[in-house]
Amino acid sequence: MVQKAKILLVDDRPENLLALEAILSALDQTLVRASSGEEALKALLTDDFAVILLDVQMPGMDGFETAAHIKRRERTRDIPIIFLTAINHGPHHTFRGYAAGAVDYISKPFDPWVLRAKVSVFVDLYMKNCQLKEQAELLRLQLAGADEAGADRSKEPAGLLAELSARLAAVEEQAEALSKQLDDDSADASAVATAAHLERKLTGLRRALDALEPGAGGAAAFPSQN
Fold first, then answer.
1. In principle, which of 17, 37, 142, 226 could form an S-S bond with 66, CB 3.0–4.6 Å?
2. In contact, 9 and 53? CB cutoff 8 Å
3. Which of the 8 DSSP states describes residue 186?
């Protein structure tokens, strides 16, 4: 399930926030209210937003000052800001908005269709960026998993050879004890021949295991079991 983008609405007038929510509800994203610049900065500390709709004229910290704080923070500097203003002081006022870091500047009363279309563009960009980040992280994890699996596979033969060598050593020890016992008891020829055959097989297995050790220069064929 695709996670919804968050849109921050900043305005000191509740009726303006209500109007923005009515306009943007059709986008089916998460709308977060902030009634002041300070409240907006607090929300930006914990949540990621696709776009910020920021009123210029607010008591205390106005929109320009709020935008300046947003752009100074590494976490939030790249979030697009759309300034909303009920006054128009000409080109200088508009330039100040863009200089503060706004990507767009809309005067009230604004066209709901235009505002929704502009916000929709930034939401789409945000969602695509999130998908790219997820894909990059997934690729990183896959590569890390492949490297780890490769490392584990490289350890498996060494561990297996060590276990086989230890088991073979135990059999070699038992075979040696058996050969000494047969010599001491002057056993019959068939028993001696069987012990000798076992020792030859063990010797062949030992050579094969030694050839499989790293740096041995290749693997030797295991002896036949005849």
1. 37
2. yes
3. T
The crossing angle, in degrees rounded to 10, of helices 14-24 and 112-184 is: 70
**Residues contacting residue 212 through CB under 8 Å, at least 6 positions apart:** 157, 161, 219, 220
Residue 223's alpha-carbon distances to 35, 174, 177, 207, 209, in angstroms, are 84, 20, 23, 9, 11
Measured CA to CA, the distance from residue 5 to residue 162 in angstroms comes to 55
Residue 179 and residue 187 in contact, taking contact as beta carbons nearer than 8 Å: no
Beta-carbon-side half-sphere exposure of residue 195 (alpha carbons within 13 Å): 17
**For 60-74, how does the pLDDT look when each residue is reduced to its tens digit (9 = 90+)?**
899 989 999 999 999
> Which candidate, 34, 33, 37, places its Cα nearest to that of 22?
33
Name the residue type at position 196: A
**129 has a pLDDT exceeding 70:** yes
pTM above 0.85, yes or no: no
